[in-house]
Request: fold
Amino acid sequence: MITVDHPLLEVRGLTKSFAGVKALQGVDLSVRAGEVHCVLGQNGAGKSTLIKTLSGAYQPDSGEIFWQGERITIGGPVAALERGIATMYQELDVVDGLTIAENIFLGHEQATGGLLHVASANARTAEILTRLGHGEISPRTEVGSLSAANKQIVSMARALSRDTRLIIMDEPSAVLDSQEVENLFRVVKELTAQGIAVVYISHRLAEIRRIGDRITVIKDGRSTATGLSVTDTSTPELIRLMTGRDVDNVFPAAEPIAADAPVVLSCHELGVRGVFRNVSFEVRAGEVVGLAGLVGSGRSEILEAIYGARRSTSGTVTVNGEALRPGSVAAAVAAGIGLSPEERKSQGLILDEPIFKNVTLSSFGRFARSGFLNERRERQAAREQIEALELRPANPDMVTRTLSGGNQQKILLARWLVHGTAVLLLDEPTRGVDVGARAEIYSLIRRLAEAGTAIIVVSSEIDEVLGLADRVLVISDGDVLTTTNANDIDEPGVLDLVMRGSAA
Amino acid sequence: GGGTTNAQPTNASVEGNEAQGDTIVIGFSGPAADHGWLGAINNAAIAEAEKYEDIDLIIAEGTNDANLQISQVEGFINDKVDAIVLLPTDGAALTEVAIQAMEAGIPVINVDREFSSTFAARATILGDNYGMGVSAGTYICEELDGNADAVVAEIAGIDSLPLTQERSAGFAQALSDCGMSVTNRVAADFTVAGGEATTSQLLAAAPQIDALWNHDDDQGIGVLAAIDAAGRDEFIMVGGAGSANAMRLIQAGDSVMKATVVYPSTQAADGIRLARLLVQDKAMSDLVEVEIPNRIVLNAPVVTSENVEQYLPTAFES
Amino acid sequence: MSEQITQTAPPTPQAHDAPPSLLKRMLGGSAGRNLGLVIAFAVLILVGTLTAGDRFASFDNFVTIIRYASVLGVMCVGMTFVITAGGIDLSVGSVMGLASTMASLTAVQLASAQTSWLLIVVIALAVGTLAGLVNGVVIAYGRVVAFMATLAMLVGARGLAELISNRSTQIVSDQGFLEFFRADLLGVPILIWIFLLVAVAGWILLNRTTFGRRTVAVGGNAEASRLAGIKVQRHMVYVYMLSGLTAGIAAVMMLGRTTVGTSTHGLLYELDVIAAVVVGGTLLIGGRGTIVGSVLGILIFSTLINVFTQNNLSTSVQNVAKGVIIVVAVLLQQRFASRGSPGK
Amino acid sequence: MSEQITQTAPPTPQAHDAPPSLLKRMLGGSAGRNLGLVIAFAVLILVGTLTAGDRFASFDNFVTIIRYASVLGVMCVGMTFVITAGGIDLSVGSVMGLASTMASLTAVQLASAQTSWLLIVVIALAVGTLAGLVNGVVIAYGRVVAFMATLAMLVGARGLAELISNRSTQIVSDQGFLEFFRADLLGVPILIWIFLLVAVAGWILLNRTTFGRRTVAVGGNAEASRLAGIKVQRHMVYVYMLSGLTAGIAAVMMLGRTTVGTSTHGLLYELDVIAAVVVGGTLLIGGRGTIVGSVLGILIFSTLINVFTQNNLSTSVQNVAKGVIIVVAVLLQQRFASRGSPGK
Ligand SMILES: Nc1ncnc2c1ncn2[C@@H]1O[C@H](COP(=O)(O)OP(=O)(O)OP(=O)(O)O)[C@@H](O)[C@H]1O
Ligand SMILES: Nc1ncnc2c1ncn2[C@@H]1O[C@H](COP(=O)(O)OP(=O)(O)OP(=O)(O)O)[C@@H](O)[C@H]1O
Ligand SMILES: [Mg+2]
Ligand SMILES: [Mg+2]
Reply:
C-alpha cells in the first residue's frame, strides 16, 4: 500500500439539497491513491448525489473538497475530468447513436482544428477494449445495439481513455452477470496496481468483501462511518451501520410444495425466432422457478414471450389450462399473469405520477363504474398494499420519481397484489436494491408463493436465483440446458453448465 | 407559332381572329387558387382556352411561393412554349424570369399584378386596384354626403399584397377628397373565416358605423355572417371584386350590402386571348391600331341595385 | 434526460402526511398550475380596459371574444388529449376544412330533398373522426412519427377538400341549421354553449374517467403502460379520433358562424391550437394535460386579438406581440407549474 | 463471445468474424440507410420520363428542379443539425423572409452610396444568425420547448419583417449582386453551386468534426453529453445559430433568384424543410442525422412538383399525393434504415 502525506481525495462536511430534499447533510470521505474505497448505504442514502458532486455534475451547498491536500472546487464535469476524476454513472450515460469509439472520446475528441481523426480514435478504442478483455468488440459498433452489460463496458472504457487518478463507479455490477463481474474486478485490480484509486458503489456485500480495501457508510445523507477496513468489519455490523437495525440477509426457508399443487402455468415448446427456442416447463401453484444464465442469454425474452409483450413464433403458453393468445399483454393480464419488468424506470413506472396511480395502473378499471373512476376507493386499495409492503414514504400521493429503487420495486409488486395474479414474472427484482429492502422483497416473494402464486424469477445473481427458487432452469444462448431442483446445484455448477453450453 | 413582336399582324377582323390558326402552346401560371376570385380567374382562363381548338394550355397553377413560380416559368421556357400568361404571386419577384422568357422569344402576358420592368411583358392586363378604392370611396362619400364625422370602416384583404395597399390608398384618397377618413381598419385574409373573425372583432370595436368597405366579396360572406350575428344594420356596406353572390344580395336589397366594386375575374382569360392573337400575328379587333396594346387597364365600375342586372351575368360564383 | 426534468423545475416540497392541506392542494392543483395564465389573462383584460374602456369591457365584447375562441377552443380540447398522450396533431385545421366542405357539399346537394339538417352535423363529425382514425392507425400501427403522419394529413386533407369542392365555396342555406347554430340561448350564443359543453365533457373525460387515466399513462410512459396491460396502440387511435371529432364539431360551428363550407377554413389553425394548449400548461412531451389551461390559453389569444383590434393596431404588430407573448407565457407557465417541461 | 454480433443485427444469424463484410457495411451505412430514398427517387424519375418524356428528362429541366430545391435545400442542411440535436426550428421560413427584407431594405437605401454588394450578403447572414441566436438562447437557457420558442419566432419574425418593410416589396437593383447570383458557372447556376457547397460543408461538419459528433451526442442523450463535459446549452445555441445562418444564406439566394426581398418569402417553407429532413431519415427525436438523406428528401419533393406540373395536374392533386408520399417515404425509410424511429 502506497503511503502519501495527503489522501488523494478528501471530502469534509459535504451538504446538498434539492428543493426540500436534503440529499447530503454532512458527508466525510477520504480516498487514498491505489485503494478501492467502497461507499455503502441504503437506497436514497445519497451515494449517487455524493459522487455527482465529485464529478462536477452537481455543485455542493457547503463542505470542502481537497485534492492531494489542496482545497478545490469542482465547477463542472470538465473540471473534474481535467483533474483526473472519471465517473461511471449509475444511469447508463452512453449515447446510443454514436459508435463505441465516438462515445469513448466524447468531449475529448481526437481532432485537429475540429476535424476528427477517426482512425486513431478507433485504434485507441480497440486497445482499451482489449485491455478490458473485450478485444472482439469492434470500435465502430453503434452503442445503441449493445446490451446493457456491454454499454457498461463502454462506460468503463471511457473512464480509462482519460488520464485518470480516480475512477468512481456507481453500481457498475448491477447490469453485469457473474462472469462479467470477474472481468471487472480484474481490471480494477490492474488499475489499483498502477496507483489509481477507485471509489466503488454496490449493494452486493459479497463483492465488497472481495475487492474493497476500505469502506465509508452513508445513512440518510450522513457518513456514519468512514475508512473502515473491509477485513476488520463484519457483515452484520455493516448492515447495522447502513440500516440502523439487524437484517437477516438469508433467503427465507421454503416449505416443500404440496404434491397435489395444481399446474398454473405451462409453456410448451415456446420460442421466439432468433432469440430462444423450445422452452418447455411448468410452474405449479406456490412454486418459485428461477431462470439462471448469463446476461443476454434470453431470460428476459422468455418472460416477455410468456407475458405476450413479445410475440412468440412457436409454442404455446397455458394458464390454468387455457391457452393464451400470443402477443397480447391484455390477454395475459386477464388470465392472471403479472410482470415486473427488468428496467424499473423505463418499463415499469410512470415516474411523474403519484404512487397510487402506479400501483393501480393494471387494475384502475376495476375502480370505475361505467368509465368513471372512484379515486377514493382506488387510493384506499393502494394504501392497503403500501402499508402491507411497508413502502416508504407511505403516502399514496407522493410522486414516484423521488422514491428509492427498493421502494419503486415494491410499487411494482403492489401493482400485482392489487390486481391479483396467479402467475408473477419477476425480472431482476432486486437490481440496484439495498440489503434491507432486498431481504424484504425476498420474504415477500416467499409469502406470495405460500399464498399459492406461481412465480418465475430472473436474476443475474446466481446465488439469488438458487436461494429463492424451488426449481432452476439454466439458460444459455436461448436454450434450456437443464432443469433441476435448486438444492441440487450450486453457483459453480451453474457457471460450469453455462460455459459448456455456450462453447458447444 | 413563334410569335415575335415585330411581325405585322395580318388580320384585324373579328371573324379572322376567330378562325383557327396554327396550334400554339400557352403556359399559364397563377397564385394558389385558394379563394373564389382566383379560382374564377383560373376557371375563366381554362374555359377560354377550351374554346379554341388551336390552343394547347399548360397550367402550372397554384402557388404563393415566388421561388416555385419562378421554376414553373423556367419550365415553360425549357419547354419552349409559344406564350406565357402569368399572374405573378409577387410582380417584382417574377420580373427577372419574365424578362428571361421574353429574351428567349416567348411573349409574356402579365395579368393583374404588375411586373417591375416594362421589358418583362409584351402586354399587361390589369384590374384597377387603386381605382377600386376610389370607386368605393366616392360611392360612400356620395351616400353619406361627405359627413366628416361619419364612422367609416375598412376591411382589407391580405395586407402584404401591393394590390391591397393600392386599394386602401385609393379608398383613403377618395374619402379625403370629400373630407372624410377611415376610422377603423382591419385586415383579413381573403377567406370567409378570416372575414368573419376580423369583422366580429371590428364590430365590437366600433359600436356605431356609418359605412363599411370590404375589399373582397369572398371574405364578404364571412363579413356578412358576422354582421348578421351581431344584429347590426345601421350602416351601408360596399363590397369588392363583384361576386355573383354579392350582386344577388344587392339585387334583393334587404341587407346592408348596397353596392360592390367590380374587379374583373376575366383578366387571365383575356390574357389567353391576347396571347393567341399575339402568337398568331393577329390584331385586336375593333382597334384601328394593328398592334396589340402594351397595357390594358380594366374598369372598376360600381354595381348598385340600379345597374346590377347588367353585371350579374358575368359575375363569378364564389 | 429524466434528471434534467427534476433539475429544471425543482419539485415543490411535498408533505409526507397523507392528506395535503387545502391550500397546498389548491396551489399544487389546477389553480396553482394555472396561476401564470390567470395573471397573464388579468393583465390583458386590464390593458384592454385601460386602452379601450367601455368598448372593451362590455358584455357584448366579451361575447365576441369568446365566440371567436369557441371554434378554436373546441379543437384545443381534442388537442389536449393528443398532446397529453404524447402525440401531436398538425392536421386539425385541414381536417376542419375538409369536414366543413364535405358537410356543406351534402347540404347543397340535398337542398331540394327534405333531409334533416342533422345530416350536415353527422357528416361533419364523421369526416373528422374518420380523418382522426386514419391519423391514429398510421401513427399507432404504422409507427410513423406523429409529426409526419399528421403533417401528411394536413397537406392531403386540404388537397382533398379542394378537389371535392372544386375550390368553390359552398353556401349552406338550410334555415333550420342556420337558425339553430346562429341562435342565442339565455343571451349567450349557441356556439359558446357548445364550447362550454365540449370543455366540460373534456375535463370530465380527462380527469374523472378511465379513458383520461389511460391517456395520461400512455403519454407519461408508453412502454410501462403497455407492460401494465393497457392497449396502447388502440388507445392512441382513440385519442386521434377524439381530436378528429373535435375538428368535426369545430367544422359544424364554423358552418354556423360563416354559413359556408370551404377548403380554406381552418388554415393555420393548428398552430394557434397547439400554441394555446402548450401555453396552457399541457406538456409537449406528454404525460400531463390540463383542459382548464387550454381553455385559458385560447381565451388569452383571442382576447389579445381583440385588444389589438380595439386599438386599431396592425396584424404585423399583433404578430410580433403574439410571438413575445407565447414565449413569456411558456416561461410564466414553467415558473408557476409544479413541474416544468424540459428544454427540448 | 458470440452475443455482441447477434445483438447488433437482430434478425439474421450472423457470421462470427469481427470485421463486417463490405456489402454489409454498405447496407448498414449511408447507402443502405438511404436505399428507400434512392428507390423512391428513381421511381419518380422513371414516372417523369415515362409521362413527360424529353421535356422531363432534359438537362435544362434537371437544372430547373435542382435550382428550385437549392433554396430549400440549404435550409434543410441547417435543419438537419437542429433535428439531430433533438430540437426543431419552425421559424426558418419566417427568418428567411425577415433576412431577405432587411438585406434588400439596406440595398435599397444604400443604392446611391457606393457600398459593395457584399453588405447585402453580410446583413442577410447576420440577421439569420441573430434570429437563430435568439431561438437558441430562449430554448437552451430559457428552457422554453423548442417547438414553442420557434413557433413564437415564426409569428414574430414575419410580423417584424412586415413592420420594417411597411409590407412593401423591396427591389434589389445592385447589378453586381444580381450578376453574381444569377450567373452560371460551368453551365450550372451559381445557386446550385451554393447548395452543393453548403451540403458538402454540412456533411463534413456533421460527420467529420467535433461539432458534428457533439450534435449527435446532445440529441442522443443530452444528460450524458453534459456529464462528458460538453457544454450542452452553448452547443444548442450554436446549432440554432447554424440553422439561422442557413436561413440567411437561403435569403441571399432568394434575393438573387427573385431580385426582391419581401416578408412573404419563405411562407410555409418550414413544413417542406422539416418534412424533407425527416423523410430523409433524420430522427425527429434527435441523435441521428443524415445530410445526404436531407438532400435526397428535398430533391424528391421538388422532382415531385415538377413531374406533376409536367403532367398538368392541379395543386390539389399534388397535395393529396404529397400527403400519401410523405407517409410512404417515412415507412420505407423505417424499413430500410438499420433502426426505425419510435411510434411517437
Ligand atoms: N435531482 C434530484 N432532485 C431531487 N431529489 C433528488 C435528486 N437526486 C437525488 N435526490 C434525492 O436525494 C436522495 C439521495 O439520492 P441518491 O440518488 O444520491 O441515493 P443513492 O444512495 O444513490 O441511492 P441508490 O442506492 O438507490 O442509487 C434521495 O432522497 C433522492 O430522492
Ligand atoms: N430489442 C432487441 N432487438 C434485437 N435483439 C434483442 C433485443 N433485445 C434483446 N435482444 C437479444 O436477445 C437476446 C437476449 O437478451 P436479454 O438481454 O433479454 O437476455 P437476458 O438473459 O434477459 O439478459 P439480461 O440479464 O441482460 O436481462 C440477446 O441476444 C439480445 O441481444
Ligand atoms: Mg445511486
Ligand atoms: Mg434480462
In short: The first strand of chain A starts at residue 9 and ends at 18. Chain A touches chain C at residues 18-21, 91, 307, 309, 329-330, 332-334, 339, 341, 345-353, 357, 361-362, 364-365, 368, 371-373, 393-399, 401-402, 415 (CB under 8 Å). Chain A has two domains: 7-243, 263-350+420-500. The mean pLDDT of chain A is 89.
